[in-house]
Specification:
Elements: H1 12-19, E1 25-32, E2 48-55, E3 67-73, E4 82-89, E5 104-109, E6 112-126, E7 129-133
Antiparallel strand pairs: 1-4, 1-6, 2-3, 2-5, 3-4, 5-6, 6-7
Length: 141
């Protein structure tokens, strides 16, 4: 099977400027796969990370239809190699329903599976702030 994808090189600043206006965001828990199981030697350094995600709900479309996400880490990595992050798609055209609570995803670097994640809650952008929201509610506070 031939795996191909189109990539564009963007600086961290360009990535974050590009995602600043994307309304669909979520909070997710990400588990980094250890190197002995084929994952990364070390989890990513820095506050942000971007890569290709394979969502369980679209597994049959992988890799022909793949979506890049940006993760902004909101916690430190714990003893079980898990971290919480605010995630969003790199583009506004991505299917927002994939960021609904309970959806599972995998993160890839090329063909290598490096992490698994689960969407914990959706976020709703109001003004210039992002507020968490449980899926299925309409801005109830």
């Amino acid at each position: 099977m031939l795996l191909s994808a189109r990539f564009s090189i963007m600086s961290c600043e360009q990535v974050m400027n590009n995602t600043a206006n994307i309304p669909h965001k979520a909070i997710a828990r990400i588990h980094w796969i250890p190197e002995v199981e084929g994952g990364r030697k070390y989890p990513p350094f820095g506050p942000r990370y971007s890569t290709v995600a394979r969502f369980e709900k679209q597994a049959e479309k992988w890799p022909q239809e793949a979506w890049s996400i940006v993760a902004e880490f909101t916690s430190k990595i714990d003893a079980s190699s898990c971290v919480e992050a605010k995630i969003s798609f790199l583009t506004q055209d991505a299917p927002a329903h994939l960021l609904e609570r309970g959806n599972n995803f995998e993160l890839y670097e090329g063909r290598r599976l490096v992490a698994r994640g689960e969407v914990l809650k959706e976020c709703v952008e109001q003004s210039s702030q992002i507020e968490p929201r449980i899926a299925g509610t309409k801005g109830v506070t």
